[in-house]
Amino acid sequence: MEAFEAVRTVLAVREYQDKPVPPSVVHKIVEAGRLTGSAMNAQPWHFIVVESRETLGRLGAAATSGPYVAQAPLAVVVAVERTKFALSDGSRAIQSMMLAAWADGVASNWVGFVDGLSGVNSILGIPNTLDVLAIVPFGYPTRRLGKGKKQRTPLAQVAHRERYGQPFA
Questions:
Q1: CA 127, 100, 130: angle at the middle one, nearest 5?
Q2: How is 3-64 classified by DSSP, letter by letter?
């Protein structure tokens, strides 16, 4: 899938088939996160790949905004160091992983955002010097999705040229 097409069509998915994601695709997803640009090349991220049913269940119970993690065949937990640009860099890595997965037909969604993920460190043995930024479940969607059918604010209302309030288009 071409990059813009992936951006245009990616959707947040919360229901996944009981079908494993092939190891080669899992590797590509994590590699997409690792290869993401990073401020001053600090790369403040750590990716914990979870495929154990039991651990996914525990993560689903710990994630107040995403109990559906328990039904996913795979999740990547993103933990970041406490540096100036870690939040930005980790977020960029998550988006790269989600787009790489989508290009291979694997859906995902962002679960949590630091708050609401307090129990994850102990579940996965993540040191307290790192913050869990998100749990990102991945899997094949349970139903056909209308790729690209999004409700978004029109471009003319959010894009400006040179100065705020000047029309872009």
A1: 10
A2: HHHHHHH--B---B-S-PPPHHHHHHHHHHHHTS--GGG---EEEEEE--HHHHHHHHHH-T
Average pLDDT of the chain is: 93
The tally of CA atoms less than 13 A away on the side-chain side of residue 62 is 21
β-pairing, 74-81 with 45-50?
Answer: antiparallel
CA distance 124 to 154: 42
Amino acid identity for residue 111 in this structure: V
Q: What is the total residue count of the chain?
A: 169
> If pLDDT is split at 50, 70 and 90, which confidence band does 12 have?
very high
Give me the phi and psi of 32, to 5 degrees please: -60, -40
Q: What's the pLDDT score for residue 146? A: 67
- Give the amino acid at 60: G
To which H or E segment does residue 150 belong? none
Amino acid at 13: V
| pLDDT at site 62 | 93
Class of residue 23 by CB neighbours under 10 A (exposed 0-12, middle 13-18, buried 19+): exposed
